[in-house]
Design goal:
The chain is 38% helix and 14% strand. By secondary structure, the chain is α/β, with parallel strands linked by helices. Helix 6 (174-188) packs antiparallel against helix 7 (191-212) and helix 7 (191-212) runs parallel beside helix 13 (319-331). The radius of gyration is 20 Å and the shape is globular.
Length: 333
Protein backbone atom coordinates (compact mmCIF):
# COMPACT_ATOMS: atom_id res chain seq x y z
CA UNK A 1 0.00 0.00 0.00
CA UNK A 2 1.54 3.26 -1.13
CA UNK A 3 1.51 6.67 0.52
CA UNK A 4 -1.58 8.03 -1.26
CA UNK A 5 -3.86 5.25 -0.06
CA UNK A 6 -2.40 5.33 3.46
CA UNK A 7 -2.92 9.09 3.48
CA UNK A 8 -6.56 8.82 2.43
CA UNK A 9 -7.27 6.04 4.93
CA UNK A 10 -5.64 8.08 7.70
CA UNK A 11 -7.72 11.13 6.84
CA UNK A 12 -10.90 9.06 6.98
CA UNK A 13 -9.90 7.65 10.36
CA UNK A 14 -8.97 11.13 11.57
CA UNK A 15 -12.37 12.44 10.52
CA UNK A 16 -14.11 9.70 12.49
CA UNK A 17 -11.91 10.41 15.51
CA UNK A 18 -12.84 14.09 15.39
CA UNK A 19 -16.56 13.23 15.09
CA UNK A 20 -16.27 10.99 18.14
CA UNK A 21 -14.56 13.77 20.08
CA UNK A 22 -11.20 12.09 20.49
CA UNK A 23 -9.28 15.05 19.11
CA UNK A 24 -10.92 17.68 21.76
CA UNK A 25 -1.60 13.04 12.22
CA UNK A 26 20.08 19.61 1.60
CA UNK A 27 22.80 17.94 2.83
CA UNK A 28 23.60 16.25 6.05
CA UNK A 29 21.28 15.76 9.00
CA UNK A 30 19.13 18.57 10.33
CA UNK A 31 21.33 18.95 13.39
CA UNK A 32 24.42 19.29 11.24
CA UNK A 33 22.98 21.94 8.94
CA UNK A 34 25.06 25.09 8.92
CA UNK A 35 23.12 27.90 10.57
CA UNK A 36 22.78 31.13 8.67
CA UNK A 37 22.37 34.51 10.32
CA UNK A 38 18.89 35.91 9.80
CA UNK A 39 18.12 39.58 9.53
CA UNK A 40 14.72 41.25 9.30
CA UNK A 41 15.80 42.94 6.08
CA UNK A 42 16.77 39.69 4.39
CA UNK A 43 13.49 38.04 5.39
CA UNK A 44 11.39 40.92 4.11
CA UNK A 45 13.32 41.16 0.86
CA UNK A 46 13.16 37.46 0.01
CA UNK A 47 10.92 36.90 -3.06
CA UNK A 48 8.89 33.73 -3.38
CA UNK A 49 10.55 30.95 -5.33
CA UNK A 50 8.93 27.61 -6.02
CA UNK A 51 9.92 25.01 -3.44
CA UNK A 52 12.45 22.72 -5.10
CA UNK A 53 13.12 19.26 -3.69
CA UNK A 54 16.62 19.34 -5.21
CA UNK A 55 17.57 22.65 -3.62
CA UNK A 56 19.37 23.26 -0.35
CA UNK A 57 17.50 25.10 2.38
CA UNK A 58 20.04 26.39 4.91
CA UNK A 59 18.89 26.75 8.48
CA UNK A 60 18.45 30.18 10.01
CA UNK A 61 18.90 30.86 13.69
CA UNK A 62 15.58 30.68 15.56
CA UNK A 63 14.41 33.92 17.13
CA UNK A 64 13.77 33.42 20.83
CA UNK A 65 12.54 36.97 21.45
CA UNK A 66 8.86 35.94 21.38
CA UNK A 67 9.36 33.18 23.93
CA UNK A 68 7.92 32.05 26.23
CA UNK A 69 4.77 31.70 24.16
CA UNK A 70 1.56 29.68 24.14
CA UNK A 71 -0.30 28.29 21.14
CA UNK A 72 -3.40 26.16 20.69
CA UNK A 73 -3.15 23.05 18.56
CA UNK A 74 -5.90 21.24 16.65
CA UNK A 75 -6.96 19.26 19.72
CA UNK A 76 -7.87 22.54 21.38
CA UNK A 77 -5.09 22.15 23.92
CA UNK A 78 -2.88 25.11 24.81
CA UNK A 79 0.82 24.35 24.68
CA UNK A 80 3.48 26.49 26.29
CA UNK A 81 6.99 26.85 24.94
CA UNK A 82 9.79 28.31 27.04
CA UNK A 83 12.15 28.43 24.07
CA UNK A 84 12.20 27.36 20.41
CA UNK A 85 12.39 23.54 20.15
CA UNK A 86 15.74 22.33 18.85
CA UNK A 87 15.02 18.61 18.42
CA UNK A 88 11.83 18.15 16.39
CA UNK A 89 10.32 14.94 15.07
CA UNK A 90 7.75 15.53 12.34
CA UNK A 91 5.30 12.70 11.70
CA UNK A 92 4.26 14.47 8.50
CA UNK A 93 6.16 14.80 5.23
CA UNK A 94 4.29 18.04 4.53
CA UNK A 95 5.47 19.60 7.78
CA UNK A 96 9.03 18.53 7.05
CA UNK A 97 8.83 20.58 3.84
CA UNK A 98 7.37 23.52 5.75
CA UNK A 99 10.16 23.40 8.33
CA UNK A 100 12.86 23.48 5.65
CA UNK A 101 11.08 26.23 3.72
CA UNK A 102 11.02 28.57 6.72
CA UNK A 103 14.61 27.91 7.79
CA UNK A 104 13.85 25.47 10.60
CA UNK A 105 15.37 22.38 8.98
CA UNK A 106 18.30 22.53 11.37
CA UNK A 107 15.92 21.84 14.24
CA UNK A 108 14.69 18.56 12.73
CA UNK A 109 15.76 15.25 14.18
CA UNK A 110 13.46 13.02 12.14
CA UNK A 111 10.67 12.90 9.62
CA UNK A 112 8.18 10.21 8.78
CA UNK A 113 8.93 7.37 6.37
CA UNK A 114 7.68 9.40 3.40
CA UNK A 115 9.75 12.51 4.17
CA UNK A 116 11.84 12.71 1.00
CA UNK A 117 11.77 16.40 0.12
CA UNK A 118 13.95 18.43 0.11
CA UNK A 119 16.99 16.25 -0.46
CA UNK A 120 18.34 16.98 3.04
CA UNK A 121 15.38 15.04 4.44
CA UNK A 122 16.98 11.80 3.24
CA UNK A 123 19.66 12.21 5.90
CA UNK A 124 17.14 12.51 8.73
CA UNK A 125 16.10 9.66 10.94
CA UNK A 126 12.76 8.29 9.73
CA UNK A 127 9.94 7.02 11.92
CA UNK A 128 6.61 5.37 11.13
CA UNK A 129 3.79 7.91 11.33
CA UNK A 130 0.96 5.46 10.62
CA UNK A 131 1.86 3.00 13.39
CA UNK A 132 4.14 5.18 15.53
CA UNK A 133 6.24 3.63 18.27
CA UNK A 134 6.59 5.63 21.46
CA UNK A 135 9.84 3.80 22.15
CA UNK A 136 11.30 4.66 18.74
CA UNK A 137 10.28 8.30 19.13
CA UNK A 138 11.55 8.77 22.67
CA UNK A 139 14.83 7.03 21.85
CA UNK A 140 15.65 10.09 19.71
CA UNK A 141 15.07 12.39 22.71
CA UNK A 142 12.97 15.02 20.93
CA UNK A 143 11.72 18.16 22.59
CA UNK A 144 8.73 18.40 20.20
CA UNK A 145 6.76 15.90 18.12
CA UNK A 146 4.67 17.36 15.31
CA UNK A 147 1.61 15.33 14.25
CA UNK A 148 -0.65 15.71 11.23
CA UNK A 149 -3.28 13.12 12.22
CA UNK A 150 -5.15 12.91 15.55
CA UNK A 151 -3.64 10.29 17.84
CA UNK A 152 -4.73 10.94 21.42
CA UNK A 153 -3.18 7.70 22.64
CA UNK A 154 0.23 8.60 21.23
CA UNK A 155 0.08 12.14 22.57
CA UNK A 156 -0.85 10.91 26.03
CA UNK A 157 1.95 8.33 25.98
CA UNK A 158 4.45 11.00 24.96
CA UNK A 159 3.18 13.33 27.66
CA UNK A 160 3.61 10.55 30.22
CA UNK A 161 7.35 10.45 29.46
CA UNK A 162 7.73 14.24 29.30
CA UNK A 163 7.75 14.71 25.51
CA UNK A 164 5.74 17.64 24.17
CA UNK A 165 3.61 17.06 21.07
CA UNK A 166 1.44 19.30 18.91
CA UNK A 167 -1.29 18.36 16.44
CA UNK A 168 -1.31 20.48 13.31
CA UNK A 169 -3.90 18.55 11.31
CA UNK A 170 -4.54 18.30 7.59
CA UNK A 171 -6.02 21.68 6.62
CA UNK A 172 -9.36 22.06 4.88
CA UNK A 173 -8.15 24.77 2.52
CA UNK A 174 -5.13 26.42 0.99
CA UNK A 175 -5.54 29.38 3.35
CA UNK A 176 -5.57 26.87 6.18
CA UNK A 177 -2.25 25.47 4.97
CA UNK A 178 -0.74 28.96 4.97
CA UNK A 179 -2.08 29.63 8.47
CA UNK A 180 -0.43 26.38 9.59
CA UNK A 181 2.87 27.51 8.11
CA UNK A 182 2.63 30.67 10.19
CA UNK A 183 1.79 28.63 13.31
CA UNK A 184 4.75 26.32 12.78
CA UNK A 185 6.90 29.41 12.27
CA UNK A 186 5.82 30.91 15.58
CA UNK A 187 6.35 27.68 17.51
CA UNK A 188 9.83 27.10 16.08
CA UNK A 189 11.10 30.67 16.34
CA UNK A 190 10.81 31.38 12.61
CA UNK A 191 7.78 33.65 12.59
CA UNK A 192 9.31 36.24 10.26
CA UNK A 193 10.38 33.67 7.67
CA UNK A 194 7.02 31.88 7.83
CA UNK A 195 5.09 35.13 7.43
CA UNK A 196 7.24 36.18 4.48
CA UNK A 197 6.97 32.79 2.78
CA UNK A 198 3.21 32.47 3.35
CA UNK A 199 2.58 36.03 2.16
CA UNK A 200 4.59 35.42 -1.00
CA UNK A 201 2.66 32.20 -1.62
CA UNK A 202 -0.60 34.11 -1.14
CA UNK A 203 0.43 36.65 -3.78
CA UNK A 204 1.33 33.90 -6.25
CA UNK A 205 -1.98 32.13 -5.57
CA UNK A 206 -3.85 35.34 -6.42
CA UNK A 207 -1.88 35.66 -9.66
CA UNK A 208 -2.80 32.11 -10.64
CA UNK A 209 -6.46 32.65 -9.72
CA UNK A 210 -6.65 35.89 -11.69
CA UNK A 211 -5.06 34.24 -14.74
CA UNK A 212 -7.95 31.78 -15.13
CA UNK A 213 -10.82 34.02 -14.06
CA UNK A 214 -13.78 34.18 -16.42
CA UNK A 215 -12.88 31.11 -18.42
CA UNK A 216 -15.13 28.28 -19.54
CA UNK A 217 -16.28 26.07 -16.67
CA UNK A 218 -14.52 22.73 -16.69
CA UNK A 219 -15.44 19.76 -14.51
CA UNK A 220 -12.93 17.38 -12.96
CA UNK A 221 -12.77 13.99 -11.29
CA UNK A 222 -9.69 13.74 -9.06
CA UNK A 223 -8.86 10.12 -8.25
CA UNK A 224 -6.73 9.56 -5.17
CA UNK A 225 -7.36 5.84 -4.94
CA UNK A 226 -8.34 3.22 -7.52
CA UNK A 227 -11.33 2.22 -5.43
CA UNK A 228 -12.70 5.65 -6.40
CA UNK A 229 -11.91 7.67 -3.32
CA UNK A 230 -11.68 11.29 -4.34
CA UNK A 231 -11.20 14.74 -2.81
CA UNK A 232 -14.36 16.68 -2.06
CA UNK A 233 -15.52 19.77 -0.15
CA UNK A 234 -13.60 20.40 3.04
CA UNK A 235 -10.31 19.13 1.62
CA UNK A 236 -7.44 21.34 0.59
CA UNK A 237 -7.24 19.39 -2.70
CA UNK A 238 -10.79 20.50 -3.51
CA UNK A 239 -9.75 24.05 -2.64
CA UNK A 240 -7.01 23.87 -5.27
CA UNK A 241 -9.70 23.32 -7.88
CA UNK A 242 -11.85 26.12 -6.45
CA UNK A 243 -8.94 28.52 -6.84
CA UNK A 244 -8.60 27.39 -10.45
CA UNK A 245 -12.32 27.87 -11.10
CA UNK A 246 -12.82 24.17 -11.81
CA UNK A 247 -16.02 22.33 -10.86
CA UNK A 248 -15.29 19.24 -8.79
CA UNK A 249 -17.80 16.45 -9.51
CA UNK A 250 -17.45 15.37 -5.87
CA UNK A 251 -18.94 18.66 -4.63
CA UNK A 252 -22.49 17.28 -4.17
CA UNK A 253 -21.23 14.67 -1.68
CA UNK A 254 -20.42 17.31 0.91
CA UNK A 255 -17.58 15.08 2.12
CA UNK A 256 -13.85 15.78 2.24
CA UNK A 257 -12.83 12.35 0.99
CA UNK A 258 -15.86 10.48 -0.39
CA UNK A 259 -15.80 7.17 -2.19
CA UNK A 260 -17.74 7.44 -5.43
CA UNK A 261 -19.26 4.69 -7.51
CA UNK A 262 -18.32 4.12 -11.13
CA UNK A 263 -21.92 4.87 -12.05
CA UNK A 264 -21.80 8.25 -10.31
CA UNK A 265 -18.55 9.18 -12.03
CA UNK A 266 -19.88 8.20 -15.46
CA UNK A 267 -23.09 10.14 -14.85
CA UNK A 268 -21.16 13.22 -13.72
CA UNK A 269 -19.35 13.22 -17.08
CA UNK A 270 -16.17 15.07 -16.04
CA UNK A 271 -14.30 17.01 -18.70
CA UNK A 272 -10.95 16.14 -17.12
CA UNK A 273 -9.75 13.20 -15.04
CA UNK A 274 -6.74 13.68 -12.77
CA UNK A 275 -5.07 10.51 -11.50
CA UNK A 276 -3.10 10.77 -8.28
CA UNK A 277 -2.84 6.98 -8.04
CA UNK A 278 -0.37 6.13 -10.77
CA UNK A 279 1.62 4.16 -8.20
CA UNK A 280 -1.34 1.77 -8.03
CA UNK A 281 -0.96 1.06 -11.73
CA UNK A 282 -3.56 3.51 -12.98
CA UNK A 283 -3.04 5.38 -16.23
CA UNK A 284 -4.98 6.88 -19.11
CA UNK A 285 -5.00 3.42 -20.68
CA UNK A 286 -6.39 1.60 -17.64
CA UNK A 287 -9.02 4.26 -17.03
CA UNK A 288 -10.12 4.25 -20.67
CA UNK A 289 -10.57 0.48 -20.45
CA UNK A 290 -12.96 0.64 -17.50
CA UNK A 291 -16.44 -0.57 -18.52
CA UNK A 292 -18.70 2.33 -19.48
CA UNK A 293 -16.05 4.99 -19.05
CA UNK A 294 -15.77 5.51 -22.81
CA UNK A 295 -18.91 7.69 -22.50
CA UNK A 296 -17.12 10.20 -20.25
CA UNK A 297 -15.99 13.38 -22.08
CA UNK A 298 -12.53 13.21 -20.47
CA UNK A 299 -12.03 9.73 -21.90
CA UNK A 300 -13.46 10.56 -25.32
CA UNK A 301 -11.28 13.68 -25.57
CA UNK A 302 -8.11 12.07 -24.21
CA UNK A 303 -8.05 14.35 -21.18
CA UNK A 304 -6.83 11.89 -18.54
CA UNK A 305 -3.68 13.01 -16.75
CA UNK A 306 -1.47 11.62 -14.02
CA UNK A 307 0.06 13.81 -11.33
CA UNK A 308 2.66 13.20 -8.66
CA UNK A 309 0.51 12.55 -5.56
CA UNK A 310 3.17 14.05 -3.30
CA UNK A 311 2.76 17.41 -5.00
CA UNK A 312 -1.03 17.56 -4.76
CA UNK A 313 -1.46 15.81 -1.40
CA UNK A 314 1.03 17.63 0.82
CA UNK A 315 -0.33 20.91 2.21
CA UNK A 316 2.94 22.79 2.34
CA UNK A 317 5.22 24.94 0.19
CA UNK A 318 4.60 22.80 -2.90
CA UNK A 319 0.98 23.95 -3.06
CA UNK A 320 2.09 26.50 -5.64
CA UNK A 321 3.56 23.73 -7.78
CA UNK A 322 0.30 21.82 -7.36
CA UNK A 323 -1.74 24.79 -8.59
CA UNK A 324 0.56 25.44 -11.53
CA UNK A 325 0.58 21.75 -12.48
CA UNK A 326 -3.20 21.41 -12.32
CA UNK A 327 -3.71 24.69 -14.16
CA UNK A 328 -1.54 23.47 -17.04
CA UNK A 329 -3.35 20.14 -17.23
CA UNK A 330 -6.84 21.61 -17.03
CA UNK A 331 -6.37 24.73 -19.15
CA UNK A 332 -3.32 23.85 -21.21
CA UNK A 333 -1.47 26.94 -19.99
Amino acid sequence: MKYTRLWVMSLLVAAMVMVLGCGGNDEGSGGATQTAVRTQASVAASPFAAFDCNAAYPATKPDASAFPLSEKDDTGATLSFAAPPSKIISLSAAHVEVLYAIGAGGQLLAGDKFSDCPKAAAALEHVDSFTPSVEAITALQPDLVLLAFPNAQLQQALSNVGVKSILVGIPESVDGALDQMRLVGRVTGHSDEAEAYADAMQRRIKEIKDSVAGGKEISVYHEVDNTFFTAGPGSFVDDLYKILGVRNIAAPTGQAFPQLTQEAIIQAAPDVIILADEDAGESAQTVSARPGWDAIPAVKDGRIYTVNPDIVSRPGPRLIEALETLKKLVYGQ
